[in-house]
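B., you asked whether I could sanity-check this one before it goes into the benchmark set. Here's the sequence:
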Amino acid sequence: MSLDNVTKRFGKKVAVRKLNLKVNPGEIVGLVGPNGAGKTTTLRMLTGIIRANSGNIKVDGYDIRDKPIQAKERIGYIPEKPTCYPSLTAREYIMFTARIYSVPHETALIRMREFIELFHFDEFIDTYIGILSKGNLQRALLIGIFTREPPYILALDEPIYGLDPRGAWNLKKLLRQLRDDGSAILVSTHILEVAADLCDRFVIMNEGDVVGKGTIDELKALFPEAVSLEEIFLSLTGGIPK
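And here's what the prediction gave me:
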């Protein structure tokens, strides 16, 4: 998936400015920045929820503007603040998601059972979406997109938020396995520990601009005195002097 020279404005405010970002199969890229940096807007453009004012966005070679259905079919998206169908049970929602992705019924059932076990979700599978906790709703959404067969193209907005330590550990382990099997994964987060622990490369945003990008070693080369991603991040976003 790729965004080339992408800009998004809301009125006079530039939310994302001339963004260039590419995620290749077999890597996890961290989109990192403070609240309001433009991360969620970037993911919403990538998944076709909102349209960019300029630039090109492609998912698996399909332009999100010219071939929106084909592009959306190929990407799994977990929003930070999901809007779901509260009157569906988690089981119904997961199977509904599988149908949207044209997953055969038996395949969806098998993979749903697999991920119910992985995420320890059996206790909640017949609970209504509208009364699930944030963490359990996150699990239901994840199981839904994982009913498809890998490799995946994933755009995940704060995917660890709301998960308990066991759920977070299981998800990070799963994402690494998917990466190793050829999935392309974009993770948006402001939690630097998550990014440092999970991602292969980083794109650091601040006030709509990309202010740094690269592997942790490449970023440390720019800031030799920095001992962590946190210090690099603060230097690039004006938190501490460079």
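One thing to flag: Residues 108 and 147 are 5 Å apart (CA to CA). Otherwise nothing jumped out at me.
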